[in-house]
Design goal:
Oligomer: single chain
Radius of gyration: 17 Å
Shape: globular
Number of helices: 5
Order of helices and strands: EEEEEHEEHHEEEEEHEHE
Number of domains: 1
Number of strands: 14
Largest sheet: 9 strands, mixed
Length: about 250
């Protein structure tokens, strides 16, 4: 089968869709991620019905997606992103209700952000079925394969640190879902306490959103948001479709 990134016919690796480090906060002491699956719809959620089952996972969700070379390429991006978000040396200062990151390697972190939504789009797993990228899927593939992060406003990602009871809401991963605002489609998911916000059309996106995209200078502003202050539609998605959470 062809690798989804380089398109070469070769042996595929069992690839993560979201990198393993994103699952770390949802593992319990036995290192199991707690989840329930509604089999009738193929959506992961926290409801308990006759059609649901509880499943424990030793690793994050994977499928045969990438060849060894492309897996290694994305793994390097993941390692760098992990160092930015969880590294021992803080890269962010909390100023005025936001984390302000500096000295980020623009190419590596932007390509990492792009790779997350692209992998969700090409995945065949039911939990990622809401991500339908259309023509953006091939464009993102070409850019990621070429190592081209584009400009800040081209496939940018805005991030928000989501708080509940004044603590980072990192004990749950929420299935990527679509959401519309002012006629534009964007995708959101929650992982590691961050809401990852991907507009597919940035031309008419309000400045207060595009200002949050990672800049070529290596700076990024991540506002702190109480969960209760998020738009109702986004809160509904978080309630309806957690992918993984602590038991």
């Amino acid at each position: 089968m062809p690798c989804k990134l380089c398109l070469q016919e070769t042996k595929l690796r069992h690839s993560h869709i979201l990198p393993e480090f994103m699952y770390k906060p949802v593992y319990d002491q036995r290192r199991r991620a707690f989840s329930t699956v509604t089999t009738t719809e193929g959506l992961w959620n926290s409801s308990t019905t006759e059609d649901s089952r509880v499943t424990y996972h030793q690793k994050g969700l994977r499928e045969y997606l990438l060849c060894a070379a492309c897996e290694a390429r994305l793994s390097k991006l993941e390692s760098y992103a992990k160092s930015v978000l969880t590294g021992p040396a803080p890269r962010a200062a909390e100023v005025g209700g936001a984390f302000t990151y500096s000295d980020i390697d623009y190419n590596r972190f932007k390509l990492f952000q792009m790779s997350l939504i692209w992998r969700a789009g090409v995945s065949t797993l039911p939990v990622f079925a809401k991500v339908c990228l259309g023509p953006h899927e091939e464009r993102l593939r070409r850019y990621i394969h070429a190592g081209d992060p584009r400009s800040a406003n081209d496939y940018g990602c805005a991030m928000f640190a989501v708080l509940r009871d004044s603590r980072l809401m990192d004990s749950i991963i929420v299935t990527p879902n679509s959401y519309k605002i002012e006629g534009a489609t964007f995708y959101i998911f929650l992982a590691m306490g961050f809401l990852w916000w991907y507009p597919m059309r940035t031309k008419n996106i309000a400045t207060h959103y595009s200002d949050l995209f990672l800049k070529e200078t290596g700076t990024m502003i991540v506002p702190l948001k109480a969960f209760e202050d998020l738009p109702l539609a986004i809160r509904a998605v978080c309630h309806a479709a957690p992918l993984a959470q602590l038991p």
